[in-house]
Amino acid sequence: MTQTVLDQLGGEEALHRLVNHFYDLMETDPAAHDLMRLHFRGHGMNHIRTEQINFLSGFFGGRQYYKEKHGHMDVRKMHAHIPIRTADAEQWLTVMDKALNDCGHAGAHIDRIRATLRRVALMLVNDVEDWRIAKP
Fold first, then answer.
1. The domain that contains 107 carries what CATH number?
2. How many domains does the chain have?
3. Per the domain annotation, does 89 fall within a domain?
4. Could you give the CA distance from residue 99 to residue 50 in angstroms, rounded to a whole number?
5. Average pLDDT rounded to a whole number, residues 11-33
6. Checking phi first, is residue 106 left (phi over 0); if not, alpha (psi -120 to 50) or beta?
7. Which of 26, 59, 75, 79 has the maximal Cβ count within 10 Å?
């Protein structure tokens, strides 16, 4: 039987640790301030922690909690209301890289996860007007 990405990561417990550490970093690292502001436009950090776990479980080949709850796994639809700049996507990836490293994840499977997350993060960059940055 082929292992899922979630299995390779260490299962749901490891996913919970990773996502919670990721958001702990986001909440405590001043360099991640811009990411925090994006999350406050939604339902807040507790909500997003749960939904990120739900989404990544299915995205990594495990149970599709997010799809069961919301009926889809369309990341563009999920983020359509959020102004995401390239710098925001890169910052998200930097924090996730740190979380992966801090949680002891390494190897070819983690390199594939990083590459996949990079593709997804960069495809979410959009032209939604940022409520904080005035246009010239």
1. 1.10.490.10
2. 1
3. yes
4. 17
5. 94
6. beta
7. 26
